[in-house]
Amino acid sequence: MYADRITPAMEQAIDExxxxxxxxIAYNTEHGIDPxxxxxxxxxxxxxxxxxxxxxxxxxxxxxxxxxxxKGAKAPVPALAAHAPKGRGKGGRxxxxxxxxxxxxxxxxxxxxxxxxxxxxxxxxxxxxxxxRLRDEVGELKxxxxxxxxxxxx
Length: 154
Prior knowledge:
mainly alpha
């Protein structure tokens, strides 16, 4: 915290934090627990992103990319914010702004491809939180594309 003076509310919060810390340390000592920080290797994160890229390639390699490229110039991808999955609501489940049947499969595939490129760029810049969020959004969009394919809409 940064302040010129400690207010009563700040002092109360600091005291409570210290009380809880002392209680946790006593518990850990009594039970022989040595807390360890989370150690996740960057390779694990990069491998997850690579698996997501392979899945995207397999999904988009089923005719969507050829249909898009066959039209000549690459069609512009609509603003991604309008198509990205929404945040979690009260129910805790993530929804999606793109409903089945609202978009042609080729447009949805273009959005997936663009977001996958953004995910790859974020990982290359070591922005793993951004890459993970994009990975989750791409996963939702790919699920919708697969559903469209199964329903015969693609």
